[in-house]
Amino acid sequence: MLLGNLAAFSLMVATPAMATDYLANPRSMKFHYSTCRTIKHPENFIPYSSREAAVNDGYVACKVCHP
Q1: How far apart are CA 42 and CA 35, in angstroms?
Q2: What is the bridge-based pairing of β-strands 60-61 and 46-48?
Q3: pLDDT-based confidence at 20, cuts 50/70/90?
Q4: d(CA 13, CA 23)
């Protein structure tokens, strides 16, 4: 049991948490949840970890996913 817990803990520590909750489109100046169905090419988006940061940079919320 101890070995199983240790293995689970090691996996948790080795796997970084996803810090990108939002993706911003520099062309449309809109930001989305990273899971928004309208995002087709996430590699073209700018990642943000907070809604406030995206708004402060001039992005507006997507009308589909309402972040």
Answers
A1: 10
A2: unpaired
A3: confident
A4: 25
